[in-house]
Amino acid sequence: MKNLRHALVALAALGCAALAPALASAQSDGLEGGHGWSRAHMFGMGSRLTGRIGTYMLGGVGGHVRLRPLRWIAVEAFTDHVFGSVDSTLRHDHEGGVSLQFPFLGNRWWNVYPLVGACASLVVLEPPRQGGAFVTDIHFGFRGGAGSEIYLNDHWALRAQVEGIGYIGHNLRAYNWTAQLSPEVSLSGVAQASLSVNLYL
User: Fold this and answer.
1) Residue 159, Cβ neighbours under 10 Å: how many?
2) CATH second-level architecture of 2-200?
3) Which residues are within 8 A (CB) of 39 and not within 5 positions of it... i.e. 6 or more apart?
4) Rounded to whole angstroms, how far apart are CA atoms 34 and 52?
5) How far apart are CA 25 and CA 183, in angstroms?
6) In the chain, where are the structural domains located?
7) DSSP-derived 3-state class of residue 80
8) 0.90 exceeded by pTM
9) Which residues partner with 22 through β-bridges?
10) pLDDT tens digits, residue range 105-116?
């Protein structure tokens, strides 16, 4: 848990650094250019800090690209890479997926949207003793949640998002020198929150 706390502090510092150019741009524009969605800025990309909690706690970073062809729908491809300690065992998940978002509520400055999506995650579990055999598995997931985006100007936006994610895959267990997969496939769930900075082109 101590290593996880250090990692989260480092991620928070990274997030503040990522916010700096967006806030500086918004200040120089006097927040007068924030028009939200437009056909001139349908494509965006962003970086984010992610925290995940369930039977374990993981934190990490991610990124996404986003296409919003209409005011009321957006398609997003994303990747997240989260790390943490589970019972003194290092676990790291590397995930990619797609989500549909429906920003039906908002104005030129902000919007709120529900979302649905699917993902696949490479799960890696390493035993406590260095040099021990690690184990991997692919978990398939489905997710639902909601988010809110605030526009700083024509190009920069800040976003917060919360999701519930269900995974189908094998349980992973680690011992002193080795890690193992359970033979049964099971369903597990986590809650995830993320904060992101988005750039619209």
Assistant:
1) 22
2) Beta Barrel (2.40)
3) none
4) 31
5) 53
6) 2-200
7) strand
8) no
9) none
10) 988 899 999 999
Q: Are strands 43-53 and 156-174 parallel, antiparallel or unpaired?
A: unpaired
Beta bridge partners of 137: 123
What DSSP element (H or E) covers 10? helix 2-29
List CB contacts of 159: < 8 A, sequence separation 6 or more. 46, 48, 147, 148, 149, 150, 195, 196, 197, 198
- Tell me whether residue 80 is exposed, middle or buried, using C-beta atoms within 10 angstroms of its C-beta: 0 to 12, 13 to 18, 19 or more: buried
Assign 200 to helix, strand or coil: strand
- Give the separation between CA 154 and CA 159, rounded to whole angstroms: 15
Q: For residue range 120-165, what is the model confidence (pLDDT) as tens digits?
A: 999 998 877 676 677 889 999 999 999 999 999 889 999 999 999 9
